[in-house]
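Fold this sequence, please.
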Amino acid sequence: MIHEKACGAVIIDHDSALLIYQNNGFWGFPKGHVEPNESEVETALREVKEETGLDIIIDPSVRHSFSYIIDHRNLSNRTTNHQPAEDIDKEVVLFLARLKDPDQSLTKQDSEISQARWVPFSEVEDLLTFSEWKEAWRFFHTKLL
């Protein structure tokens, strides 16, 4: 089994959270793969900047992680159009974050993101696609109350 790790952030601005709709059809929070010699926080900062254009401040003490298995039979290889030979054990680490500058503008990465929008807290859980993301939101939301 292949292990992949991605890090990202649940970004809060007033009573809204930033959600992204990936080109593969899923609502979630901005995140991406860890590069060699990169910490979880460094990955989250870089990936958020790449996907949304936003500079954020991460609270490393508010961290949530979850894992899931991606069946290789349901996934095309991202680089060659061939199916990977093994399932992927995907670990996702998210941190609570706020905007560094509240006046900065959101600019989505078109190659991976179809939509990026601020969603009121009351609507976030309903919009998230997968149960693991909904559980992560519940964790972060309790930290905000």
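Residues 67 and 91 are 4 Å apart (CA to CA). The first strand starts at residue 2 and ends at 13.
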